Amino acid sequence: MGSVRIYGPPFSTAVSRVLACLVEKEVEFQLVPINLAKAQHKSPDFIKLQPFGQVPAFQDDTTTLFESRAICRYICEKYSAMGNAELFGRGGPAERASIDQWLEAESQSFNPPSSALVFQLVFAPRMGLKQDPKAVRDGERRLGSVLDVYERRLGESRFLAGEEFTLADLSHLPNAHYLVNATERGELFTSRKNVGRWWEEISSRPSWKKVVEMHKEAPPTA
Amino acid sequence: MGSVRIYGPPFSTAVSRVLACLVEKEVEFQLVPINLAKAQHKSPDFIKLQPFGQVPAFQDDTTTLFESRAICRYICEKYSAMGNAELFGRGGPAERASIDQWLEAESQSFNPPSSALVFQLVFAPRMGLKQDPKAVRDGERRLGSVLDVYERRLGESRFLAGEEFTLADLSHLPNAHYLVNATERGELFTSRKNVGRWWEEISSRPSWKKVVEMHKEAPPTA
């Protein structure tokens, strides 16, 4: 198990997604620091691991992977019996498909506006970049529409894919964490009854609390 | 098998992605027309199938799904032995993960700029909307960078995930089809040696030709 390595800083939302999955699955891993401020993710050695020059990269023995959601799927398949064995479903194609569709909803509908807001409201100020007020307004409007759909869905089931916490819920944690805890836009989540209840439940999981602790140990300025 | 239904017009890139998968897997299906010009995708009945009001929606007996890439994964799992049995891999977690990571590269890196270009250069003129020259320039620049990574990758292997045509390649067909055949930006693909060879090979598959025929039978004005 000691052969699992993840490359990247914990404060990155994509790195955090994989960390949350590894902790939830109780898979031991080594975190290899990559300093984005020093452009280590654009170095020739890193490009060999991740051809787009983005974090995270991932290694497990001879398997090298990129793209956080693909890495999470791999961890759940490879270590299916470890830790939370429900994380990517246990049943047939229909159960897996329900998780997949909400994981895709995160990737296609939730992620674009929430990533834009996290960049504008959290990372741009830290990097000394000017905020783009139009991008903030567009992001808020688009994320609000997505969360209206989530509000209806989460009135029908405890979690997005059904009654169990799955990869679909987990994948929302990193962006939602920044929006609720590091901006004044947390109301997007907390003002919606079912979304607020869901956020409270998924963000209270010991696995996610452990990832948040890792943010503190390696802040963006490190 | 007659119980598989896909809702949406074939000219939609997301609908085409699912059609290509169904044809490749030789799964019989019924195509249910949805008229976007008449906003049928925003009707209460359609919202019950697809809560975001987007095409396609998909049904297979009692399973209702949305998100084209999740639907493709489901079709490959449910009908694993039918048609092209290699489409989503046959081996262990590492083979599946290689397909997943390039499917995610399509979704996260290739799709945003290529969808923006298809909208600006193909659909906006058809809808009588004004083109945004900055969105076109940004899309070209970003897609070019992504295709530079693909060019290196496709110098190492015949297809994106390895030596077999998979869901990862298939998922690129709809946007690439419009860019090569309905705009003057086809050079983005054809000027790159390996990408051009790959495009030629994947777009020549009988399954994709069948989907292109379906575009002609139900054009956007229908």
Automatic annotation (TrEMBL), chains A, B:
Reactions listed under catalytic activity: RX + glutathione = an S-substituted glutathione + a halide anion + H(+)
GST N-terminal domain segment(s): 2-83
InterPro entries per the UniProt record, alphabetical: Glutathione-S-Trfase_C-like, Glutathione-S-Trfase_C_sf, Glutathione_S-Trfase, Glutathione_S-Trfase_N, GST_C, GST_Phi_C, Thioredoxin-like_sf
Biological process (GO), any one: response to herbicide
A cellular component term, taken from the record's GO annotations: cytoplasm
CDD domains, sorted: GST_C_Phi, GST_N_Phi
Record's keyword annotation contains Transferase: yes
Enzyme class: transferase
Keywords, ordered alphabetically: Transferase
Known EC number: 2.5.1.18
SUPFAM superfamilies cross-referenced by the UniProt entry: GST C-terminal domain-like (SSF47616), Thioredoxin-like (SSF52833)
Keyword rRNA-binding: no
Family: Belongs to the GST superfamily. Phi family.
UniProt protein name: glutathione transferase
